[in-house]
């Protein structure tokens, strides 16, 4: 039971004894005391006035006096109108630190066999081009959300749906046949996804030339410019040939299918390399080439049940006007599917593969309407989670003008961005003369962690619903609300803990290779020799000494550490990685303020020094756990 729970239980007992009534726990809510008042926790008494039948001040005074007399957790109190501000007893803070130190993943919940199963879809790339900056935000949000839901005790399945079929794929295939001369990733030295992307660009270039020539020819024959261009787009030989290839693919032509499989395999190898660099992955990957027929069958089934209707031209629609929406196309008049059809087929396959309790789609906000419709359709088709599916909608991400343009000058390539971030981190470290004593391999590994940490944190700290401007230079700053600032604080703490070990070894005192790891139940027990070990809080005698010597900064730091579990829970409820990022930043600031005012290794009082070592270790542990929910690795040295 934590401090808030102890005080809440005591307050409920106080209400019963003072006023003879039992009230629900919801009527006794605690919040952090505002900084201008003395106290750590505040109880708002206004909901209790109907049972106390007294003024707010008198109600708060009665409660405060009872709690001070009967609850060891409350040392003293003060009343400001209807607010009971309580100072938590030092013994409670030390006990709380003991509990946190004993748990390697304090604030996280473990999933059980009975936990709800959450499936999270993210990434969703097309196989005609490499991943870009928009995919980076999508993948980082999806991966982080999966870690946050797991930390809230859910079973989580991370999934990806790959758009591996359609006219866009055929464009790349046709261009490769026309101008590729058998080029492969091996012969070109390019990643497979980049190679295929180049041929998609090549198709577009030649196609536009054909359209330009045809349009000029039609206009010379007297056709209006707009109509000429529209006709040219339809009659251009390249696009006709691409459509013919798509028809052959649909018909299962062996030659076309073999080329499709070969070129897609190149793309997947390239995607995997990018995913590894981003530090993301999936438990299950679905492909639209395997789901679209399932979707068509499901729509036909819904048509037979009267859920949908067919128009005179043979197309199939869903009438959603009763839900305040419009009519939605599900199958074209020629029987071909649309994106909605494919999503229905994918949903059916997933539902058969997993006992889904909640489905979360990480997709940009331009698809908000699509998921409103999908939710209604899945519910009507009998998927239990359909009505409550979550569209984790996020905004666009852009770079400052003129920075990191791609070869086409419009879309920022994910691989280029990753490489640039790591290079920037290495450059900043080299210019500052950091890590010069480390090997080249160690320096590059630190640069990778810092560069990727900068990228991930800068993107994830922003409310996902908002559009954002990603500035690489700002993200790599070692001061302010950035990943490197938090990483540097973590590395500084690790340096303090290593230095403590070295000092103890020099003095011949006991020290282990692993500095009193969290979870060691002996951390707070008396040593037979009376000698303290590195970073340990010991026994009742030492505890009493610590109780009387806790300063405000130490209390503030323990309280901030204790808020981690609530931050994780809130991030899970709100589907908000930014909540974790902001908590880690606030904890980092709180520690740095403490460390600015108080020495750790330089503290002469051994008991105070041990307390601060345990505090520092738990800050490092919590930062490591919190940043891991964002997919960010923490370097031991910087």
Structure report:
There is one protein chain. The chain has 638 residues and is of the alpha/beta class. The protein contains 23 helices and 14 strands. It has helices at 3-19, 49-52, 56-70, 90-102, 133-151, 167-179, 185-188, 192-220, 225-235, 237-250, 254-278, 288-304, 339-353, 368-380, 414-431, 440-460, 472-475, 483-507, 540-549, 552-562, 564-574, 577-597, 606-628, and strands spanning 30-32, 41-44, 74-80, 83-88, 117-121, 155-162, 284-287, 309-310, 316-319, 327-331, 358-364, 390-394, 397-398, 468-469. It has a five-stranded parallel beta sheet, with helices on both faces. Strand 9 (316-319) and strand 10 (327-331) form a beta hairpin. Helix 13 packs across helix 14 (368-380), helix 20 (552-562) runs parallel beside helix 23 (606-628) and helix 22 (577-597) runs antiparallel to helix 23 (606-628). The longest helix has 29 residues, at 192-220. It starts with a helix and ends in a 10-residue tail after the last helix. The model is unreliable at 402-408 and 512-545 (pLDDT under 50).
């Amino acid at each position: 039971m934590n401090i808030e729970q102890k005080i809440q239980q005591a307050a409920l007992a106080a209400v019963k004894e003072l006023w003879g009534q039992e009230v629900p726990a919801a009527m006794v809510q605690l919040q952090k005391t505002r900084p201008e008042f003395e106290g750590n926790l505040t109880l708002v008494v206004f909901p209790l006035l109907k049972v106390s039948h007294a003024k707010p001040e008198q109600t708060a005074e009665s409660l405060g006096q009872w709690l001070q007399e009967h609850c060891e957790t409350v040392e003293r109190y003060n009343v400001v109108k209807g607010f009971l501000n309580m100072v938590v007893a030092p013994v409670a803070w030390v006990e709380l630190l003991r509990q946190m130190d004993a748990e390697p993943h304090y604030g996280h919940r473990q999933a059980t066999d009975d936990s709800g199963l959450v499936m999270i879809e993210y990434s969703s790339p097309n196989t005609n081009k490499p991943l870009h900056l928009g995919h980076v935000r999508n993948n980082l949000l999806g991966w982080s959300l999966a870690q946050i839901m797991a930390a809230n005790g859910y079973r989580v399945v991370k999934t990806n749906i790959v758009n591996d079929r359609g006219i866009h794929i055929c464009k790349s295939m046709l261009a490769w046949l026309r101008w590729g001369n058998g080029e492969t990733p091996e012969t070109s030295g390019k990643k497979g996804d980049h190679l295929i992307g180049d041929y998609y660009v090549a198709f577009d270039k030649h196609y536009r030339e054909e359209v330009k020539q045809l349009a000029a020819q039609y206009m010379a024959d007297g056709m209006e410019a707009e109509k000429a261009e529209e006709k040219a787009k339809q009659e251009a030989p390249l696009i006709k040939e691409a459509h013919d290839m798509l028809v052959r693919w649909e018909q299962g032509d062996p030659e076309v299918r073999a080329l499709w499989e070969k070129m897609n395999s190149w793309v997947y190898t390239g995607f995997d390399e990018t995913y590894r660099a981003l530090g993301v992955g999936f438990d299950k990957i679905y492909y639209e080439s395997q789901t679209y027929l399932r979707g068509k069958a499901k729509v036909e089934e819904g048509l037979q049940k009267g859920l949908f209707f067919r128009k005179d031209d043979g197309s199939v629609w869903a009438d959603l006007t009763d839900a305040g929406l419009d009519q939605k196309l599900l199958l074209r008049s020629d029987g071909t599917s649309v994106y909605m059809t494919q999503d229905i087929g994918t949903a059916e396959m997933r539902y058969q593969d997993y006992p889904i309790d909640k489905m979360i789609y990480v997709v940009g906000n331009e698809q908000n309407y699509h998921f409103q419709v999908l939710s209604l359709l899945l519910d009507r088709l009998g998927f239990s989670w359909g009505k409550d599916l979550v569209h984790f909608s996020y905004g666009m991400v852009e770079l400052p003008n003129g920075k990191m343009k791609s070869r086409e000058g419009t879309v920022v390539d994910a691989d280029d961005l990753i490489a640039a971030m790591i290079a920037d981190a290495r450059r900043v470290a080299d210019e500052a003369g950091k890590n010069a004593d480390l090997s080249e391999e160690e320096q590059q590994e630190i640069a990778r962690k810092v560069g990727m940490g900068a990228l991930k944190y800068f993107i994830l700290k922003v409310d996902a619903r908002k559009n954002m401007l990603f500035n690489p230079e700002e993200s790599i700053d070692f001061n302010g609300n950035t990943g490197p600032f938090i990483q540097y604080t973590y590395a500084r703490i690790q340096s303090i803990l290593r230095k403590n070990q070295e000092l103890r070894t020099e003095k011949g005192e006991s020290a282990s290779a692993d500095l009193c790891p969290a979870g060691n139940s002996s951390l707070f027990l008396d040593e037979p020799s009376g000698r303290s070990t590195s970073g340990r809080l010991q026994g009742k005698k030492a505890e009493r000494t610590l109780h009387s010597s806790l300063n405000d900064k130490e209390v503030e730091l323990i309280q901030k550490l204790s808020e981690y579990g609530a931050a994780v829970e809130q991030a899970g409820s709100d589907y908000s990685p930014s909540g974790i990022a902001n908590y880690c930043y606030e904890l980092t600031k709180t520690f740095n303020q403490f460390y600015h005012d108080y020495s750790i290794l330089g503290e002469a009082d051994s008991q105070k020094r041990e307390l601060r070592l345990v505090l520092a270790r738990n800050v490092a542990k919590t930062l490591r756990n919190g940043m891991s929910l964002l997919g960010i690795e923490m370097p031991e040295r910087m």
